[in-house]
Amino acid sequence: LSILTRNQLVPQINPNGRIPAITDGNQRVFESGAILLYLTDKYDTERRFSYAPGTPEYVEELCWLMWQMGGLGPMQGQANHFRVFAQVRSDYGIKRYMDETKRLYSVLESRLQETGAYLAGPKYTIADIASYGWVRSAPNALDIDLSEWPALKKWYETISQREAVQRGVKIPPPKFSEEQFREFMKAAREKIDAKENTDKYVCTYNWGTYKRKT
């Protein structure tokens, strides 16, 4: 399956036809946040990667998981689209979503400075798992330097050293080396930069009406 291809899954597994989705016996589960919650609720009985429901830590974990699904994922996903994959160049789209992605990284930075460890508290949880993949892709895909956010960079490096994470990022086996992937993304950004900006107008709000500037 490819994350770039639509409608790969039959509606019985995911009505939206997209990944991620899993089946566990007769139970279907789709959307990354729902999958993480399902797996921890059913299988993480020792609470190695989650907090017990009803505790303040669980609520914090849930908040940061929802924050990723409603904020970091969609916004950085749009940044990836406009900066790397779009067929046309939109300076507005690039700036809008790159700025928002960096703002969200500042939110992560503030939280990690507060906890000194992980998003929900002192323990590594599904809240961290949900955001880690996005942060991991940012330097190569968007040319973002994590050094701008020291606590976030430390968090990223700490998680990257986990043996299970090192195994997980190799599933499925990558088709390119890290350097090849970095060069591929760089070439994609340069291809967009070479195009003419297609933003034809901007809208300004003036006394309750939108005016078009051509």
UniProtKB/TrEMBL annotation:
Q: Which residues form the GST N-terminal domain?
A: 1-47
- Taxonomic superkingdom: Eukaryota
Q: Could you tell me which residue ranges the GST C-terminal domain spans? A: 54-184
**Pfam families with a match to the protein in the record:** GST_C, GST_N
Q: Which PANTHER family match?
A: GLUTATHIONE S-TRANSFERASE GSTA, GLUTATHIONE S-TRANSFERASE-RELATED
The similarity annotation says: Belongs to the GST superfamily.
| Listed name of the protein | Glutathione S-transferase
Which organism's genome codes for this protein?
Rasamsonia emersonii (strain ATCC 16479 / CBS 393.64 / IMI 116815)
